[in-house]
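=== RUN LOG ===
request id: a7f3
mode: sequence -> structure
chains: 1
length: 305
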Amino acid sequence: MTSAQNFSRPGAVDLSGLTAAQPTENAAPGGANYAVEVTEASFEAIAQQSMRYPVVLLLVSGRDASSSQVQRDLTQTINAAQGRLLLGLVDVDTQPRIAQALGVAAVPTAIALLGGQMAPLFQGTRDRADIQAVVDQIVQVAAANGLAGRAAPQPVAADAGESAGEEAALDPRFTAADEALQTGDFKQAVAEFDKLLKANPRDTEAQAGRAQASLLLRTSNLDAQVIAAAEAHPDDLDAQLAAADLDLITGDAQAAFDRLIDLIRRTSGPERDQVRVRLLELFDTMDGADPVVKKARRALSMALF
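=== RESULT ===
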């Protein structure tokens, strides 16, 4: 493969306007793997999964030294997202027709699939912080568009022969919730997660899924005027809660957390507890190892005591 011009696709999702979160530790809990090899036979099934959660395609070559480091960094970063994305690895040496179909003439190249649409991400080498920022942007765009499903962990060494033509198996616990999220029925998704939590209140994945579905439900009809209303009425509890939701869904988690922590400092009794519960719920929508979450948890402790 040789150098080529950057490509673009009609209908691609614009990621340029989102604010990336700070880098998080690139290690998946329990060593879970969310990367799978992609072949011509399995490409369509893997692409279909982008209707439930983002799929990132990384086109690499064993003959290109830079591909190895980018693949390693992107794999670790996506694994740390705990199933919020799936990574599809395309070896252009053995799958040249996929590269041709996508118009890719240089490696490494990364492309996002969101709701069946392609969005070019980057071409060439990137350091880990840049890769983390790109992954954060994809997760934010997916959440804003209701793509909040979870990918199932893949075998550590994906067997292309076994995966050909097969869609990765999903955790059956989340089938009903994922279907509701896919159709935009966020209220039903919350109800499905509630069923799982009733059966097992300690199910952290269901808890995170419920928090995400609730956030999508609350923000489905919000617009930018929410922020203006919160600024005009700093003591309006509902306005501040709505503004924090919008801050988070548009990628500014720090602003969302700061807003609610400030509100906790200025309230007491049932109102303060309502804000505290909402803040904890917003924490559940993100990776607990994210520095922004860790910082906000410390600030919450200081505000409460």
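=== NOTES ===
The chain has a mean pLDDT of 82.
Residues 84 and 145 are 13 Å apart (CA to CA).
=== END ===
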